[in-house]
Amino acid sequence: MKKCELCSSPAKLFCESDQACLCWECDARVHGANFLVTKHSRTLLCHVCQSLTPWHGSGPRFVPTVSVCNHCIANKNENHDDDRDEDDDDVGGDNDEDDEENQVVPWAITPPPPASSSSNSSSSF
Ligand SMILES: [Zn+2]
Ligand SMILES: [Zn+2]
Ligand SMILES: [Zn+2]
Q1: pLDDT tens, 78-113?
Q2: Which domain of life is it from (predicted)?
């Protein structure tokens, strides 16, 4: 767990120029001091594993944001995928480019028929 260099709060961002991890409050205090430090580019830390995320910016202070690194985003997606996925275009990529008309509305895909053994299903309509 990275900690803010100026207090003991969990670090929320990393200042490249200072090579320092800071929390929101200390960041605002340090980088609001003058126009030179305001230009420091700071990278947000992942709120799960505290590694650097692609999110960065500069300014006198940051609005507290929950940011997640690519790795944790991938992890989250994996978990969600396990839940209900089967008919997504993620499966193998057979020929996605061929039937572009099909992939426009995912929920238009008809679900497979239930696998219950009902031998009574003659066309009584
Ligand atoms: Zn701090
Ligand atoms: Zn700085
Ligand atoms: Zn992470």
Answers
A1: 765 555 555 555 555 555 555 544 444 444 456 567
A2: Eukaryota
Q: List the domain boundaries for the chain.
A: 1-78
Indicate the SS3 state at residue 22: strand
Query: CA-CA distances (angstroms) from residue 6 to 2, 22, 25, 27, 28?
Result: 12, 7, 10, 9, 12
* Distances from the Cα of 103 to the Cα of 91, 93, 95, 97, angstroms: 13, 12, 11, 9
From the CA of 72, the nearest ligand is 3
| Residue 99 Cα to ligand 3 middle (Å) | 36
Closest ligand to C-alpha of residue 75 is: 3
**Ligand 2 centroid – CA 86 distance (Å):** 47
